[in-house]
Amino acid sequence: MPIHFIPAFTDNYIYIAETPKGAWIIDPGCADPVFAWCAEHQRCPSAILCTHHHADHTGGVEALVQRFRIPVYGANQRIPQLTHAVRAGLLALDEESLTVLAVPGHTRDHLAYVWKGALFCGDTLFAAGCGRLFEGTAAQMFHSLQQLARLPGDTAVYCAHEYTLSNLRFAAQVDPENPIIAQRQEMATAQRARNAPTLPSSVTLECASNPFLRCHEPALIRSANTFDPDTGDDPVRVFSTLRRWKDHFS
Ligand SMILES: [Zn+2]
């Protein structure tokens, strides 16, 4: 079950998941690189899956539908050309079964898709980071991330952006004694130097080094309270403080 990376814009990834009966395009922010991939590999996609409505994840939907006449899956009509509104639960597609998770926070109706040990999480979970809170609350995002953290540890995490190195800089600042962060920085720097993706990550790796999944750890509680002394040790409040800090971190 190969999963292909199609880089788009400056730091997006569109994914194509090849199944025995089809090929799904996940979060096509634009169409041209997908057309190029399909021509090169002589494959026609069978469906589009969208995690959320932002244009850098859906901008290519209309042109792809025009060309291939394929169904579009997503949360609701905020996804252009939507043909199948899906909600949390099982989704049958091309004789495969996917698990759909509702992960509000970045947007209020953000979805994640799990298929055969691969997680497509859009802008909810990033390698060593998480999405900004555009529509949801800190508590919603915290619980969405916890839901992803409970997936099997070897679940491969396919995020929609290549943000790993900048996320790791923040992780090193807020969790300075964590040796896994330094290891990841070294590996990700080498990967980016040869223009390779730093993804997929894994749930185990994220739980060990992603500050937004580690809000219960003393080191993160300490750091959050240096940024905002009113934080305390409640994990949702720690998450909220870290997210606000990251919004202004450079
Ligand atoms: Zn987004």
Automatic annotation (TrEMBL):
It is an enzyme of class 3 (hydrolase). Residues 11-161 form the Metallo-beta-lactamase domain. Pathway: Secondary metabolite metabolism; methylglyoxal degradation; (R)-lactate from methylglyoxal: step 2/2. Thiolesterase that catalyzes the hydrolysis of S-D-lactoyl-glutathione to form glutathione and D-lactic acid. It catalyses: an S-(2-hydroxyacyl)glutathione + H2O = a 2-hydroxy carboxylate + glutathione + H(+). Zn(2+) 2 binds at residues 56-57, 123, 161. Binds 2 Zn(2+) ions per subunit. Its EC number is 3.1.2.6. Monomer. Zn(2+) 1 binds at residues 52, 54, 106, 123. One of its GO terms (molecular function) is hydroxyacylglutathione hydrolase activity. This is Hydroxyacylglutathione hydrolase. Its cofactor is Zn(2+). It holds the Pfam family HAGH_C. One of its GO terms (biological process) is methylglyoxal catabolic process to D-lactate via S-lactoyl-glutathione.
